[in-house]
Amino acid sequence: MSNIFLFLLCSYLISATYARSDEEIKQWFISVGMECNKDYPITPDDMQTMMQKYQIPNSKNAKCLMACVYRKANWLDSEGMFDVDSANSMMEKEHADDPAKMEKAKKLFKICKKVNDEPVTDGNEGCDRSAHMFQCLVENALKMGFKIQ
């Protein structure tokens, strides 16, 4: 049950880009998170670090779990890069009726696009880049006024 909370934490990173209800977002992340956790199980300590410190632990599974979640959200492409165009397209579909929210999220994506230029050791696997992406999104989302749910 506690793994569910990790995915709820991660949901705030992407929830700003969905026009779905909080409950729909929560259910989607529970489903995706549980699916990804089968391939990339994390320890309770890793989960606590992610939830309380908003940091990705330096474990391969924690990083790869995030890569799995980001891939399923279409935010990480097959080369392990942050797909800003896909994230922006999702914004345009999900928030056509809220241009201010759409623009705010697009600014966040633009800021975090820099993770594609950061060196990684796992090539197109995307686990290292997902850790960079998580940190960038967390740090900048908080600065931009997005709230952690």
TrEMBL record:
GO biological process, one term: sensory perception of smell
InterPro entries from the UniProt entry: PBP/GOBP, PBP_GOBP_sf
SUPFAM superfamilies: Insect pheromone/odorant-binding proteins
GO-annotated cellular components: extracellular space
GO molecular function: odorant binding
Keyword Nuclease set for record: no
Superkingdom of origin: Eukaryota
Protein name: Odorant-binding protein 17
